[in-house]
């Protein structure tokens, strides 16, 4: 079967992604209400009862809003590093001790036949992480909420068959937008969010024939649009000498209000 996934929701209003293989189904983050998460799961023929656990990237509300409710309702293990557990404790409520699972940054864990690896990222949270998923030769990488992409992150997500990567904002739209300057400065900082241009710059370094698709994720509803994001990302790649055909590599959409279709990592 290999790895399949669907991005249930992506953006500042809430984030959740489901990854599964033949024997394991995991969710990354639960940043919407439990009711809304269950509705999105149903759109992909799943329910909370199908989940084997929830992985947490960091403690911001758009990543943990429904975490406590989902974990309690379905008796789910929750995986996070120690600092994230401490930072989100008051927000998520009581979690059974047997379901409080530690996955330290940089560690690898076998969950069923899925291998899960966490890696540190730069964001204004206690100890934020991205995740790699392996099943045999297949690799799926998920990296959002990035102020910038360090050499260690580049190494972690390199050679992914499929990549979910942040393209949060268009810089000029953000600068001209309605947000107060202190929030704009935070978003633009090294502990904020990745712009379209920076996402393209990173992809131009990573694209080596292995990565077949990249899903542009965590788009701002106020300061970005999917078509603009794809145009800017592709332009930034071409400016750096990285040209490709759609048959070789594709940029794919994510949505804040509906899930992406199921995607099999092994598909060309």
UniProtKB/TrEMBL annotation:
Pfam families, per the entry: Lactamase_B_2
Taxonomy, superkingdom: Bacteria
Catalytic activity line of the entry: 3',5'-cyclic UMP + H2O = UMP + H(+); 3',5'-cyclic CMP + H2O = CMP + H(+)
Residues of the Metallo-beta-lactamase domain: 13-191
Ranges annotated as spanning the membrane: none
Alphabetized InterPro entries for the sequence: Metallo-B-lactamas, RibonucZ/Hydroxyglut_hydro, WalJ/YycJ-like
Role this protein plays: Counteracts the endogenous Pycsar antiviral defense system. Phosphodiesterase that enables metal-dependent hydrolysis of host cyclic nucleotide Pycsar defense signals such as cCMP and cUMP.
The name this protein goes by in its record: MBL fold metallo-hydrolase
Biological source species: Paenibacillus enshidis
């Amino acid at each position: 079967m290999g790895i399949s996934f669907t991005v249930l929701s992506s953006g500042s209003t809430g984030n959740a992604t489901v990854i599964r293989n033949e024997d394991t189904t995991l969710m990354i983050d639960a940043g919407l209400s439990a009711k809304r998460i269950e509705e999105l799961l149903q759109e992909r023929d799943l329910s909370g009862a199908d989940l084997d656990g929830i992985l947490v990237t960091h403690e911001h509300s758009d990543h943990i809003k429904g975490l406590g409710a989902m974990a309690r309702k379905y008796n789910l293990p929750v995986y996070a590093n120690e600092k994230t557990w401490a930072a989100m404790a008051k927000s998520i409520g009581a979690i059974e001790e047997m379901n409080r699972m530690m996955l330290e940054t940089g560690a690898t864990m076998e969950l069923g036949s899925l291998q899960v690896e966490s890696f540190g990222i730069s964001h204004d949270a206690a100890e934020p992480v991205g995740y790699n998923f392996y099943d045999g030769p297949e690799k799926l990488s998920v990296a959002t909420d990035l102020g910038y992409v360090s050499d260690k992150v580049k190494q972690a997500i390199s050679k992914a068959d499929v990549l979910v990567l942040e393209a949060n904002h268009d810089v000029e739209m953000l600068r001209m937008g309605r947000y107060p300057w202190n929030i704009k400065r935070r978003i633009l900082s090294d502990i904020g969010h990745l712009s379209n241009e920076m996402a393209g710059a990173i992809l131009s370094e990573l694209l080596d024939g292995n990565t077949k698709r990249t899903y542009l994720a965590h788009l701002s509803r106020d300061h970005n649009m999917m078509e603009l994001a794809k145009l800017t990302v592709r332009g930034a790649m071409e400016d750096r000498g990285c040209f490709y055909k759609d048959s070789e590599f594709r940029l794919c959409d994510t949505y804040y209000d509906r899930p992406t279709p199921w995607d099999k990592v092994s598909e060309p």
